[in-house]
Amino acid sequence: MKYDFDTSRNRRGSYSLKWDVxxxxxxxxxxxxxxxxxxxxxxxxxxxxxxxxxxxxxxxEEWYQAYKGWWEKVHHFQIEKEWLLxxxxxxxxxxxxxxxxxxxxxxxxxxxxxxxxxxxxxTDHGRKIAENPLRYDSGRYEMDFPLLEQxxxxxxxxxxxxxxxxxxxxxxxxxxxxxxxxxxxxxxxVILLSDEIHCDLTAPGLEYIPFASVSxxxxxxxxxxxxxxxxxxxxxxxxxxxxxxxxxxYRKMKKGLWADGAGEPNVFAVDAAAAxxxxxxxxxxxxxxxxxxxxxxxxxxxxxxxxxxxxxxxEATYLLWLDCRSLSVSSRRLAAFxxxxxxxxxxxxxxxxGNGDGFLRINIACPKELVMEGIKRLKKGVxxxxxxxxx
Length: 391
Prior knowledge:
CATH architecture of the largest domain: 3-Layer(aba) Sandwich
Strand content: 5-15%
Strand order of the largest sheet: 2-10-9-8-7-3-4
CATH class of the largest domain: Alpha Beta
Oligomer: single chain
Distance between the termini: 47 Å
Helix content: 40-55%
Shape: globular
Structural class: alpha/beta
Order of helices and strands: EHHEHEHEEEHEHEHEHEHHHEEHEEEH
């Protein structure tokens, strides 16, 4: 490999949310990576930093072309410049869409288990959650379309938030599924907001399908939130985008982004995103291969050493959804025990709603030595829990 993903770097003392934990604890919880971003992106940021003046920043033509070029080349979908809006993050985009495109008391449908930030983006604005649990069968999730249509047909449901690919279950939704979702939303006059932040983190050889690319119907009813932040480890830069083909929704989103202070880039946001999408392709390709090797290590280890726990999917994201239900313990209790006794910090699956209790989420976007240490701690913790140390 051209790029180094094996070297561990000490993040303690850097105000890292992930690593602001007690000494000796291994954090594999929040979704950021323990890899330096691509050197090409670092160079762009450093070049901007050396300028020495950090005033207000515009969104230049280079930013639009970077997004357009990446989606056309990598994802085979042509985004129009007139659809694109800068925003500081995907969750701010969802929050602003809920605030400006629905009314207080409306229901917003989310498919659980799903990233817990969705819940707050809805309820903090006085809207209600319509929870549409995904079906889990034979180790795989799928949509429950009869229930989905029933809930979308409720006049109180005015928006659906889709996670594509899905966090935390790691599935890439296929074209047929997305097309059916679009048709149901159109039929029942429901706006579809697609969170596609994990779209570039698919397993080697697999591609995601942009929701808006599936059909004219999907395009006209949708808002799509995207960013380089997950794929290139740029979360702290606060740089993202939405593309909104419908002119009326575009105007409302633009007004909402500016009203809430989420439409203006910080001084590094444009340069980092443009560098990622124009110069980061090879780095990302090697990252995906490295992540897949980490995933396979975990899958094989669990199969041979800890068969009570299985990995649900490795199609997308660097987050593994671990099925721990055979241990017959709540994931909240198990996660707390692992953190206290094994010094391993994972995410409790119950926070994601649906059938999340009984599952854990682990972040394997780190050097292999940390993955190996984390899984060793998982085995040790489960063994100690089963021996009665939890009592």
